[in-house]
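WARN  no MSA supplied for this record, continuing single-sequence
INFO  ligand: adenosine-5'-diphosphate
INFO  echoing inputs
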Amino acid sequence: LLEKPQESKLIKQMRAIKNKIMVMSGKGGVGKSTVAANLAARLADRGYKVGLLDADIHGPSIPKMFGIEDERPNVGEDGIIPIPVTENLSIMSIALLVEDKDSPIIWRGPAKMAAIKQFLEEVAWGKLDYLFIDLPPGTGDEPLSIAQLIEKLDGAVVVTTPQDVALLSVRKSLTFAHMLEVPVIGIVENMGAMRCPHCDEKIDIYGMGGVEKAAADFDVDVIGELPIDPEIADIEDQGRVHLEGDRDLEWFREFSKVVDSVENF
Ligand code: ADP
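INFO  complex generated
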């Protein structure tokens, strides 16, 4: 009798996760981790089982956003146990495995690839509805590794600000997702506008239209336009992203459209 080749652990693990979604940006500092963290937390609020993998090896900020930067994961029978922050949400990040959080991580491509493989293969994610992967900015080794290691990525969310420099690089991210054959769920525009704290008037900071144009050129949707809101930065600095989802803020109302788009994709 011919024996079937053994299903690799990685394939088995990834098949237990219904939706594997990467969050990308062309540039740093545009709000990619903010979007990844809130997507994970808000879908968990809606009752889904969610995992969040911080694959931003050089600038891991997810643990701080959930107040778990001093925790260290345990190892169980099925592998490294991701840190649970609520009943429905657990998190893994390179920042939780390194000794000194102020030391930079200096790795070449193959080492990064090995680390990412370990995150997918040896973390006991279990059965999940969603796994969000917060990628480093740009189109380097990490997104490529993720796309190669996961049989099928279900979607990509691309985050940008409306400045020209960010838009230029977001076009690269869209091309990259297309080359990897990962369907783009949509573009999230972040920090394009703010409300004047005195008169409440909405101010468009960079002028309009750039994000829509990129979206139209690549035939993808803009799934949210998130304003600048210092409260959002505060919630993150205090490590309370998983706890503040019902706060009555314009930012959260706009963000619920992003969550709807991912849920309905
Ligand atoms: P990236 O992952 O793209 O580097 P982050 O999500 O870490 O970006 O965001 C960079 C900084 O900007 C963080 O301090 C974050 O709290 C803040 N920030 C992101 N989006 C907003 C927003 N809409 N309003 C106010 N601050 C924001």
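Residues 17-263 form a domain with the Rossmann fold fold (CATH 3.40.50.300).
INFO  checksum written, moving to next record
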